[in-house]
């Protein structure tokens, strides 16, 4: 009993082999694409992180926020530099801005400032209510007074007036923006 093979029987194993090989090639292609994406993703995320840090650092440099303790140390370490002449607290008006959204904190802080000798130019809400930390801003020429105010309030961040015009301080020279902490 000899079986004769037809042409179709001869082609079938090759068809199966072709389908299996194509399936394996497809799986390999997907794996190669995934590996390639992983290899490219790491340098790409590193580059994006570096760019974000550069932008954040540049923005901080533009704002020129200075921690109070470093500024005070700088003056202490250079005795040859004359101490800046500070205007009296009574002649340094302060605007208090509530930047955390809690009711009444600006007026409470204004009362505290008045009790230590600062005239308060006003107490009101800031344009934003999402400030994370409390800080002091100053108009040009009032940095020493801003550092003293930050010291009086035990704050660590002082910077020049940013996002406001001096006329917005209602005659004051310093602004305290109250944040969440």
Give an overview of the whole structure:
The protein has 181 residues and is of the alpha/beta class. The protein is built from four helices and six strands. The chain has a six-stranded mixed β-sheet. Helix 4 links the parallel strand 4 (135-138) and strand 5 (157-160). It is rod-shaped. The relative contact order is 0.14.
Mean pLDDT: 83
Radius of gyration: 34 Å
Total of helices: 4
Q: Which descriptor suits the 3D outline?
A: rod-shaped
Order of helices and strands: HEHEHEEHEE
Q: Which class of secondary structure composition applies to the elements?
A: alpha/beta
Oligomeric state of the chains in view: single chain
- Tell me the strand order in the biggest sheet: 1-5-4-6-2-3
Strand % is 5-15%
Low-pLDDT stretches: none
Distance between the termini: 95 Å
How can the largest sheet be summarized?
6 strands, mixed
How many strand segments?
6
Helix content: 40-55%
Could you outline the blueprint of secondary structure elements for this entry?
Layout: H1 7-63, E1 66-67, H2 68-77, E2 94-98, H3 105-115, E3 120-125, E4 135-138, H4 143-153, E5 157-160, E6 174-178
Parallel strand pairs: 2-3, 2-6, 4-5
Antiparallel strand pairs: 1-5, 4-6
């Amino acid at each position: 009993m000899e079986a004769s093979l037809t042409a179709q029987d001869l082609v079938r194993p090759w068809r199966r082999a072709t389908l299996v090989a194509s399936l394996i090639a497809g799986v390999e292609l997907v794996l190669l694409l995934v590996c390639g994406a992983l290899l490219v993703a790491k340098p790409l995320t590193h580059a994006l992180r570096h760019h974000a840090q550069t932008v954040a650092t540049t923005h901080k440099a533009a704002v020129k926020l200075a921690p109070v303790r470093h500024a005070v140390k700088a003056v202490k370490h250079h005795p040859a530099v004359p101490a800046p002449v500070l205007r009296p607290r009574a002649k340094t008006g302060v605007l208090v801005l509530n930047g955390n959204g809690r009711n009444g904190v600006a007026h409470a802080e204004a009362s505290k400032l008045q009790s230590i000798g600062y005239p308060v130019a006003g107490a009101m809400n800031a344009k934003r209510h999402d400030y994370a930390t409390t800080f002091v801003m100053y108009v040009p020429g009032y940095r020493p007074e801003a550092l003293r105010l930050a010291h009086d309030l035990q704050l660590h961040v002082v910077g020049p007036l940013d996002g406001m015009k001096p006329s917005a301080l209602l005659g004051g020279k310093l602004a305290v923006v109250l944040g969440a902490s």
